[in-house]
Specification:
- Helices cover 32% and strands 21% of the residues.
- The protein is α/β, with parallel strands linked by helices.
- The chain folds into two domains: 186 residues, Rossmann fold, CATH 3.40.50; 91 residues, no CATH class.
- The strands form three sheets. The chain has a seven-stranded mixed β-sheet with strand order 7-6-5-8-9-13-12, sandwiched between helices. It has a four-stranded antiparallel β-sheet with strand order 1-2-3-4, with no helix packed on it.
- Helix 4 links the parallel strand 8 and strand 9.
- The radius of gyration is 20 Å and the shape is globular.
- The two termini are 34 Å apart.
């Protein structure tokens, strides 16, 4: 394998020494890492058993479905959702023009279509084997992705390397959301910006139910969990078929329930447990959304106040923190070097 000429090289993720490529290995003075299909694996061993479970869960998810990687499906079904999750409108996408971009937690490349094509140079890392599907999934859209399998907390780049870092729903699936954000932002240039989405804390009953269901699901293999989760998908589908509304006449503050008129399925989804159903997406894809929530063991949720505190500690200017149904879309600018 020959190293493609580019602006930002890989460096050893532990020692930050230069790397040399020799056939199927990429090596520093201290370590060697394997290369498969042109993609180096910088995390061949994971000591954190929970993180390993998360790695395997998302690896299975993104390699067992074509959802989000079909060109027409992306445009019709997912592009509006991804734009909302990142707090953007389609007219905002020119902010990525001619920028060096790192996508942290690229998965199989489903979000990448929003920003990779405009980039000056586009890099993607993921802890899971899904990263090996990115090139194929983006082949009709973008062919110059620079990819590696790597840990967010040990990224294979020098500090202050990128103009932009993006991360769609990833930091909360690591051992510590704040530390993962911080370690990623070290690779961002001063004056650069980061756009990310993280989960928010929901109503008390939903929080309890989610943790309880996760405790019953996450120890199973992905295939076993996929079958088990179907009970929730079936329930969501059944409620959706009824097409009924429920009226909450006033806020129930201590349960976090706000007054209003709710579709019955949406009411259960928002305040009791995740039972996603989307008729346009169909059964398998709806079930995929539910297992995505319940199978990974690391699944932290946060408040807006926490995010603001992190930004103050890291000297980040906040352009926006937008509260969405399940999380926060955040846009921050880096003002100084993060130690």
């Amino acid at each position: 394998m020959k190293l493609v000429k580019r602006e930002i090289p890989w460096t050893d993720p532990i020692t930050h020494e230069p790397l040399i490529i020799d056939n199927a290995l990429i090596s520093s003075k201290s370590s060697s890492y394997s290369i498969i299909d042109g993609i180096p694996n910088f995390i061949e061993n994971i000591s954190d058993e929970i993180q390993k479970q998360v790695q395997e869960s998302f690896g299975e998810k993104w390699t067992k479905t074509t959802f989000a990687n079909n060109d027409s499906e992306f445009e019709k079904k997912l592009k509006p959702i991804y734009l909302e999750m990142m707090g953007l409108k389609e007219t905002d996408l020119d902010i990525f023009n001619n920028k060096t971009i790192l996508e942290v937690g690229i998965g199989s490349g489903s979000s990448s279509r929003l920003w990779c094509k405009q980039s000056k140079e586009f890099h993607g890392v993921d802890i899971s084997k899904a990263v090996y599907a990115v090139s194929d999934n983006l082949k009709n859209f973008y062919q110059n992705s620079i990819l590696s399998q790597a840990d967010i907390n040990h990224l294979p780049y020098d500090d202050e390397s990128f103009d932009v870092i993006v991360s769609n729903g990833v930091f909360h699936h690591t051992p510590n959301t704040k530390e993962s954000l911080k370690n990623s932002l070290k690779k961002l240039k001063v004056g650069g910006f980061c756009i990310f989405y993280i989960y928010k804390i929901k109503s008390p009953i939903r929080e309890f139910s989610d943790d309880y269901i996760r405790s019953k699901i996450s120890h199973l293999s992905y295939d076993e969990a996929y079958e088990k989760i179907k009970t929730l998908t079936n329930f969501g589908k059944s409620l959706s078929k009824k097409n009924s509304d429920i009226i909450i006449p006033s806020d129930i503050d201590f349960l976090g329930i706000k007054k209003g008129t709710y579709n019955l399925q949406r009411f259960f989804y928002d305040y009791f447990f995740k039972c996603f159903w989307n008729e346009d997406w169909g059964y398998d894809y709806s079930n995929l959304v539910n297992i995505d929530w319940y199978h990974p063991k690391y699944c932290w949720r946060h408040t807006k106040e926490e995010i603001i505190l992190w930004c103050n500690e890291m000297d980040l200017s906040i352009k926006y923190i937008k509260e969405l149904q399940s999380g926060y879309a955040c846009f921050v600018k880096k003002n100084s070097i993060i130690s």
